[in-house]
Design brief:
- By secondary structure, the chain is α/β, with parallel strands linked by helices.
- The protein has one domain: Rossmann fold.
- It has six helices and 13 strands.
- A ten-stranded mixed beta sheet has the order 4-3-2-5-6-13-12-11-9-10. A three-stranded antiparallel beta sheet has the order 1-8-7, with no helix packed on it.
- The structure holds zinc ion.
- The site of zinc ion has 6 residues, from loops.
Amino acid sequence: MIIALIIVPIGCNEKIEKQEKPQPVKEKSSNDSAPLKALIIDGENNHGIWPKTTMMMKDFLESTGLFNVDINRKAFTWQGPHHNVEVDDNYKIEELLKDYPIGEKEVGEAVSEPVADPNFSPNFSEYDVVISNLGWKSTHWNDETKMAFEKYMADGGGLVIVHAANNSFGDWDEYNQMIGLGGWGGRNTESGPYVYYDKIGQRIDDPSEGQCGSHGPQFEFKITTRSPEHPIMKDLPTEWLHTKDELYDRLRGPAKNMTVLATAFSDKDGNGPPWNKNVKGSDRHEPMLFTIEYKKGRVFHTALGHMDYSMECVGFITTLQRGSEWAATGKVSQSVPTDFPTSENTSARNWTL
Ligand SMILES: [Zn+2]
């Protein structure tokens, strides 16, 4: 989405340097040989391709042999404006829902504007990890479901936030604590600091006033590892080239107990939105992959994954697989695939159902 706001940077002297926290060591205590139970939640996302990307992520996770993946879809399905225009700009949600069926559950009613589903109540506690494929304008859950989710996370649940899932629920405080940083969704200076890496590789948590969430046109960009010893990042290259995607910048949030795993550079000219000449790229190394410790729970957050082709990147797939395992168990048992991208070349796997 696009929000036209003028950036009003203030006081560089207000910036706070912050050291990374050590990683959590809590590990899953149940039978290690049993598949992990994962749940993808979806149904409302401004990224209209979501019925497909849900199936892609389910397949990516199950192909590891580590996960069984269920899908819980809101009853009223809303497809936003972002399609894979390179394929078909008229791809309707009804067709997508039919092309990527989720099994026995009835396809929900497609609506032109998001409508809250009062009966949306996944049994979170059954799962080792919940993956959100929700997005901008996702409607609030009923209080009981929100409380159940907060309890699930507080008790040691796992959560994976994918791209526009960090647009959701800007006014849900506990959710914002869980996801560390978010964009749009009514977020503003009050939501918390910007977090970025400066030119000499120091992490900055910056409370300056200014907009929350921006990106430029999609392009291929380099990902830089910042926490090479973290289980999710171990043995990954220091730099790798990601396939075409949106580079989110100026996310804000509580950023408490947050570890930045990898960043990408938002170039002033290259990542400014062409639809708003008043906004430039942030000129900062922006968090793309990060983790948050929320009470006893673990969260892996990837800002990547705008479109189906963005998710075909082996870097996206690998970090999703490893991040989901880490969120579920605190460990990563998967090795790095041989077709992982390099600093010079992207690497993608063509995905079909
Ligand atoms: Zn996007």
